[in-house]
Amino acid sequence: MDLLNVMIQEKPVVIFSKSSCCMSHSIKSLIRGFGANPTVYELDRIPNGQQIERALVQLGFRQSVPAVFIGQRLVGNERQVMGLHVQNQLVPLLIQAGAIWI
């Protein structure tokens, strides 16, 4: 978890992803569509990707990606992000985190 804390520190939006994951791609597109510029870590393309993936699984993810943090807080996977979007709560979270401005 310490590694994850360092990686999400001082970043408004962080997405842990894999380059081949279609749900990761969809979530990145959704968040970018609101004007946010998330920090994206492609776990299959970085040296310590497997270590990060294990840390995400320890947080309770069955599938490690996508894992979304907004305002240094774990939001969850694609289901949680889409749920927030459907309930009109995603944009306010992005604004509160300083990821977008209106």
From TrEMBL:
Keywords from the UniProt entry: Cytoplasm, Redox-active center
Location in or out of the cell: Cytoplasm
SUPFAM superfamilies: Thioredoxin-like
An annotated GO cellular component: cytoplasm
Occurrences of domain Glutaredoxin (ranges): 13-75
Pfam family, one: Glutaredoxin
UniProt xrefs under CDD domains: GRX_GRXh_1_2_like
Family the UniProt entry places it in: Belongs to the glutaredoxin family. CC-type subfamily.
NCBIfam families assigned: GlrX-like_plant
Protein name from the UniProt record: MONOTHIOL GLUTAREDOXIN-S6
Organism: Salix viminalis (Common osier)
